[in-house]
Known about the structure:
The chain is globular, with a radius of gyration of 15 Å. It has a single domain, classed as Rossmann fold, CATH 3.40.50. It is built from five helices and 13 strands. An eight-stranded mixed beta sheet has the order 6-3-2-1-7-10-12-13. Helices cover 26% and strands 26% of the residues. The chain is α/β, with parallel strands linked by helices.
Amino acid sequence: MTTKHELRRQVGKKRAALDAEWLKTASASLIRQFRSLDIFKTSKTVALYKAIGGEVNLEPLFEHCWSLGKRTAIPVFNANSRVYEMAEISSSTQFRTGNYGIPEPVSPERLPLSAINLIIVPGVAFDLAGNRLGRGGGYYDRMLSVFSGSTVGVCFDFQWLETVPVDPHDQPVDFVVTETKCGKVPNEH
């Protein structure tokens, strides 16, 4: 099996080569797939993320959530505890570049994980069992290990693989959504 490092490199090359127009179109298709999920329709508070480096662009989904009256949050890095926490955002939130080049609110309003129904999780790759390969810092794994709501991994078709390397601390997701398909993964975790 390919190592985590090798798989990150392989997928990273593919993401770096993505055409901006394809990325925009594929992200929009993925968002349409995501919006059809019942867990999204029934969620009152949704945690999303700000895309970097060829990740699925969720910006239009932020607007859609607000139009439905849903609360939204994104991860913000707590430099003291070295963990990501959630901060509520709105259409008027101002952003700055945070740790690892990820946009974060200038004045974050912390939101406890217990207030969130659904977390949309980025990943380098996912597999058919819902296992996720992240960037390697374990930040999402630590957050998801104490989260009791639903999780949806989002990626492009080329990132949804048969298997990915898994370690004991890795946290799986409940659903995976791509630009052409979505599905609940087997609940064997």
